[in-house]
User: What shape does this take?
Amino acid sequence: MDWFVINLLNGFSYGVVLFLIAAGMSIVLGAMGITNLAHGAFYMVGAYVGWTVGVKWGAGFGLALLAGGLCAGLVGLAIERGLLRYLYKKPNEQVLLTFGFVYILANLCLWIWGGWPRAPFTAKFLTGSMDIMGRAYPKARVAVILVGLVLAIGLWWLQEKTRMGAIVRAGMDDKETTMGLGINLERAFALIFFISAFIAGSTGVIGAQLLGVHNALGMEILLLALIVIIVGGVGSIQGALLGGILIGVIDSFGRAIFPQLAMFTMYLTMIVVIIVRPAGLLGRKI
Amino acid sequence: MEALKIDGLSKQFGGVDAVNNVSFTVNVGERLAIIGPNGAGKTTMFNLINGQLSPTSGRIHFFGQDVTALPPHRRAHLGQARAFQAISLLQKLTVLQNTLLTINGTNPHRFVIFRPMKKFEDVLQKAVDILKRIHLLEKQDESVSNLSYGEQRRLEIGLGLSMDPKMLLLDEPSAGLTKEESAEIISIIKSLKTGITVLIVDHDMDMVFEVADRILVLHYGQLIADGNPEQIQTDQRVREIYMGVEDAVDYAGTT
Amino acid sequence: METIKQDKEQVRWISRSAPYLLGVSVLVITPLFLDTYGQGLMTRFLIFAFFAMSFNIVFGYAGLLSLGHAAFFGAGGYTVALLKLHYDVNLFWITAPLGMLVAAFIAALFGIIALRASGIYFLLITFALGQMLYSLAWNVKWLNSKGMQGITGISFPDLGIAVLTLDTISFYYVVLIVFVLSSALLYRLTISPFGLSLEGIREGELRMEAIGYNTWFLKYVAFVVSGAFAGLAGVLFVYYNFFISPNHLGIATSFLPMVMAIMGGLGTFLGPVVGAGVFIFVENYASILSPQRWPLVLGTLFVLTIMFAKEGIGVYLWRLWTKWSHYFGSVKN
Assistant: This one.
C-alpha cells in the first residue's frame, strides 16, 4: 500500500510541474492563438536565474522564484513586443520564430552559465523528509503538490472569472470590434504573454528539484509541455491539469514497474489519446 | 426523385441551436432561396448540406442517396458545387491554376504523379473554354488576389458551373458587388439550364425575388415559412421578423 | 510543318534546361579541383540539399509543417547501419531500397497518427513522434553499437562491381547521380496534377475538399513520399558520415531542412538547394571560427529570415537586386 501511495505522490508532484509547464503554453495558445515553442526555453532561463539567485548568491528560495519568473517574463515580453506581435494569425511563422529562439536562448545560457549542469535545489526549509505511511518522503515534493494546486485554482479563476480571459478570447476572434470597444488589446496580449513566461520561469525554479538545471532543458521541457497539451487538450487550465497529472502518474508508475521503459509510457498514452480523441481529452477547438 | 430532402435536421453548437429541426424538400430544377436575419442559420444550413459540418441529428438525402455522413469531397463527386460566402478561391494561385484544380477535382487524373500537368492538353483546352465563357481568359496567368471582387465572384461561380453540377449552392453571391455586378450574377443564374437545381442564400431581396421560384425563411435556426415569393411577401410571421426591425427604426426616426 | 514545330520545341527545351545543365556540370567538375575535405563538404551539401528538398514537398508544397522530418532521415540511416552492424550487409542495391522502405513505413505509420489532427496539433504530434524515435534509439540496445550511443563502423557502400571500391570522390559521384535522378523525379511530381493539388491544399483546404479532393489522402501520400526520399538522404548520409546517432532522429536534425528550405525559398523547387548551399558554407566557417556560438548565429539568422525575408533569403536578395538595378537604370536616364 505504501508503495502505491509513494508512487502516487511522485506522480502527482511530477504531474503538477508538468501542469505548470503546460498551463503557460496552453493559455497563450488558447487565448492568443500563439504557438510558442520557446516556452521550454523560458523555463530554462528561469531555472538558471533561480539557481544563481538562490544557490550561488544564497538569497533564499522565494527570491529565486521571483527572480526566475521575472527574468523569464521579461525575455518573453521582449520577444512578444519586438517580434511576435507582427505574426498574429500566422501559426507557421510563429512556430519557426519561437523555435529559432530555443537555439538562441540555449546558446546564451551556455555562454553565461557554461555547460556543466547544476544540481537540483529547493528551498532550505523544505529540505529533508517527512513521514508518509512509515516511509521517509521529501517535504519539497509535497510542497510542490500543494503550491501547484493553489496555482491551478488561481489560474482557473483568472481564466474563467475575470474580464481578462474573456477580453483576450474576444480579441482573438474579432480584433477590430474588441478594440473599438475601447479595450487595449495590445496591452492585454503583452500582459498575458508576460504572465505565461513568468509562470514558465518560476516553474523552472520549482521544478529544479525534479528536473535539474541544464542546457538541454529548452527542448526537453518543450517536449513535455507538448505531450501534456496533446493529451489534455489546448486552451484550458483544466486540460493542462488533467493532462499533467495523468502523464505524471502514468510515468511514475511506469518507471516503477518497468524501469527500462523510460518515457515510453508517456508516448504511448499520447498516441492512444491522439487516435481516440485528436483534440485532447478536454480539448476545445482553437 | 427529389434533388434534396432535408429531414429533421438539427445542429447544436454547445447549447446554441444553429439549426433546429428543419425539414424541407427541393425538386429538381427548382430555384430555392433561403433567407432570414443574420444568425438565422442559413450558412450553417449550407455547411450541413455540403458537408463541412455534421448535423447533431437528422438526415440529408441528395438525389435519393443518404449523404449525411459523407465528407464534402464525396458530395462534390455526387454533383454538388458550392460558392462560399467569403470567396474561397486560392488567392495566391493564378486564375488558370484555380481553373485546372477545379476541373481536376472530379477527375481521376488528379492523382497522376509522373506526367506534367501541361501535357494534359484536353484539360488545358477545357480550362481555356471555361475562362473564355466567363471573359477571364486574358487574366489566366494573374494571381486571383489581383482580380477585382466582382471578377473573383464571377470566377468562383463560373468554376462551380464548370463542375457540371446537379445542384449549385450559392452563399451570398451578391455580397460586396455593385448593382451592375449583381445584375450580371442574376442573369447568369437565370440562364442556367433548367436541369440544374439552385440553392441561394442572400440578403439582397431584389435578387431573391427575381430569381427564386420558392423561398424558405429561417429564424433562430427554425424554418418559419416556405412558399413562393408572393406568399412569403405577404406572410405575417415573415413581416414581423423583417419589417419589425423597420418599424422600430421608423419609430426612432419620428422622435 | 511538323519538323519546324519539332525544331522549335527542341530549341525551347535546350534553352530552358541550360541553367540546370550548367549547374550539374559545375557539380561534376568542381570536386576534381578540391581536396578530400572539400569533396566531403560537397557530398554533405548534396545530401542535405536532397533532405531539404524532400522536406519542401511536405512543407513548401503541401503546407504541412512537420517538426519530425529527421525521423525518416534517421530511419533510412539506421537501416543501413543496422544491416551492417548485425548482418554485415553492405551492398548498396540492398541497403538503399531497404532504407527507403523503412523510412516510408515509418512515415506511413506516423502519418496516420499525425494526420488525425490538423494545424497546430499536427505540428506538435510530429515533433513528439520524432522525439519518441530518438528516445527509442537511445534506449534500445539492439539499435546501438556495443557500449555507446549510436552505431559506428560504417564505410563506403559496396556497389557490387568487382573492380570498383569507393573512395571519397567516387562516392561523391554516386551521391550526385542519386541526387540528380531523384531531383528529376521530385520535380516531375511537383509539376504533375498531384503536385498542383498539393499546392491547392496548402492555399485552401476547404475549397479543395468542396471541389472533390480527398485532402487527407493527398496529404498522406505527400507525407509518405516525402518521408521515403528523406530516408534515401539518410542512407547516403550514414555512408558519408560513417556514424549515426540518436541525434540524427531528433529535433536537432529535423531543424536543419527547415532552416535550409526556408532560408532558400519555400515553395520554389530549387530554394532548398540554395538554402543548403548557404547553410553548409556558413556552418563550415562558423565551426572554424567559433563552434560554440554557431547555434546562436544560426538561430539569429533564422529569426531574421522569418521576420524580414519570409520567402527565403535567395528570393529576398533577388528582389533587392531587381529593385536596385531598376533604380540605377532610371537614374542613368
